[in-house]
Design a protein that fits this description.
Length: 227
């Protein structure tokens, strides 16, 4: 996998050795002359480089993102409510962008059900590309969204059953570039609006059960097809 250039702590370079007279003068000025002073150039360089090592670097033509923070999950994602289902859906698409730009698919997998085929396809695609390449992915945009809850508002459902929801939404996928072995291999512009339907499942937190492509442009009828 190609890594974006970043600074590393040196630590291997030592100050030039001082002459005996210089050592004597220094000991006289410093008393006992114990250890290096706090203004030691090598120590300062090491501190600066150590700090630079943790600086977030976005994905670019130079390589994938480095030290990029995982998006924080919204608090609502842990509540079996309509607001929680909506928050989880939006969060999943944020994690998809994060996975593409960093190669780290673990957060995306955590909020995807094991049976979700589209989720698995997305993570497999990232892993495959990152064997010798990377993505530069712009954010996706959810334009409109409707939530239809199931289990938690039904008296007939067992109390231990998972809460479920179906979310119908319009998505504009962000543009992205694909790099392979250090060179640009392809680019995709921002997509037209696509309509998707997603099943969400709740067990401690919401997760994606599946995504289904519905169509392009207009959604026929009222939200969720007047079912």
């Amino acid at each position: 996998m190609q890594n974006a250039p970043h600074l590393c702590a040196d630590g291997s370079e030592n100050p030039d050795a001082a002459s005996p007279s210089e050592v004597s003068d220094r000991e006289a000025a410093e008393g006992d002359g114990q250890g290096a002073s706090s203004s030691d150039p090598a120590a300062e360089d090491s501190e600066v480089n150590d700090s630079d090592d943790t600086t977030p670097v976005p994905a670019s033509s130079e390589g994938p993102a480095q030290n990029w923070p995982v998006p924080d999950p919204p608090d609502e994602i842990y509540d079996p409510t309509e607001e929680g289902a909506e928050a989880a859906l939006r969060y999943w698409w944020e994690l998809r962008v994060y996975a593409r730009n960093t190669g780290d698919t673990e957060p995306l997998e955590e909020f995807s059900d094991e049976a979700c085929e589209v989720c698995e396809a997305q993570t497999d695609q990232v892993r495959t590309l990152y064997e010798s390449g990377w993505y530069v992915q712009e954010p996706d945009n959810i334009v409109d969204l409707w939530v239809r809850p199931f289990a938690w508002d039904s008296a007939e459902v067992d109390a231990e059953a998972e809460a479920e929801a179906v979310v119908l939404f319009r998505l504009v996928s962000g543009s992205f570039d694909v790099y392979w072995e250090g060179a640009l291999d392809g680019s995709e512009p921002e997509s037209n609006e696509a309509v998707l339907s997603s099943l969400l499942l709740f067990d401690e937190h919401w997760r994606i059960g599946e995504h289904v492509y519905v169509g392009q442009d207009e959604i026929a009828g009222t939200p969720l097809g007047d079912e």
